[in-house]
Amino acid sequence: MPIKRMSPRNALGQYLERKVSDLRRVLLNNLIYVGEEAVKEARQRGRYKDQTGNLRSSIGYCILDDGVPVTFGGFKVVKDGRQGAQQGRKFLDSLISEHSTGLVLIVVAGMEYAQYVEAMNLNVLDSAEQLAERLVPQMIKSLKI
C-alpha cells in the first residue's frame, strides 16, 4: 500500500520554520535576562572604589542575532559617569562586527583601565562572567535543547 501525502506540500517546512522562530525568540528573551543579571552582578560586586562613576557606568551588554543588535542594556550613568557610559557603548559597538553569526551575548566594561582594575583582583566583570557561565547552561537545560 503506497503512502499518500494529505497535507499541503509546504506545511512541514512552515511548521519547522515557526518552531525554530519560536525557539529563537525564547532564547533571545533568556539571553536578555542573563545580560541584565550580569550587568547587575558587575555593578553590585565590583570591589573597586567608585571615584568618578565612569567604570560602573561603562558596564553594559548587547545581544546580537546573526550580527544584528537586538537589544542593549546597562550603561546607566552612576555619579558623574557620562563619559563611562559613552565609552562603554563605543567599545561595545567596536565588538559587534566580530560576531556575525548566531545568538551572541556581549558584556563589557568599556573604560580603558578596566583590565588594570581587574588585574588588581578588584572584580570588574569576573563575577558577571562566572554568573553568565552558570546561567546559560541552566537556561539551555531548562529549554530541553
How would you sum up this structure, described in words?
The chain is an alpha+beta fold. Helix content is 54%, strand content 14%. The protein has helices spanning 11-45, 54-57, 82-96, 114-119, 126-143, and strands at residues 59-65, 68-74, 103-109. It starts with 10 loop residues before the first helix and ends with a helix. The relative contact order is 0.17. The model has no long low-confidence stretch (mean pLDDT 93).
Gross morphology is: elongated
| Number of separate strands | 3
Strand order of the largest sheet: 2-1-3
**Helix-and-strand structural type:** alpha+beta
The string of secondary-structure elements, in order, is HHEEHEHH
How are the secondary structure elements laid out?
Elements: H1 11-45, H2 54-57, E1 59-65, E2 68-74, H3 82-96, E3 103-109, H4 114-119, H5 126-143
Antiparallel strand pairs: 1-2, 1-3
Helix pairs in contact: 1-5
Fill in the keyword field for this structure:
three-stranded antiparallel β-sheet, alpha+beta
Provide a short characterization of the protein structure.
The protein has helices at 11-45, 54-57, 82-96, 114-119, 126-143, and strands at residues 59-65, 68-74, 103-109. The chain is of the alpha+beta class. Helix 1 packs antiparallel against helix 5 (126-143).
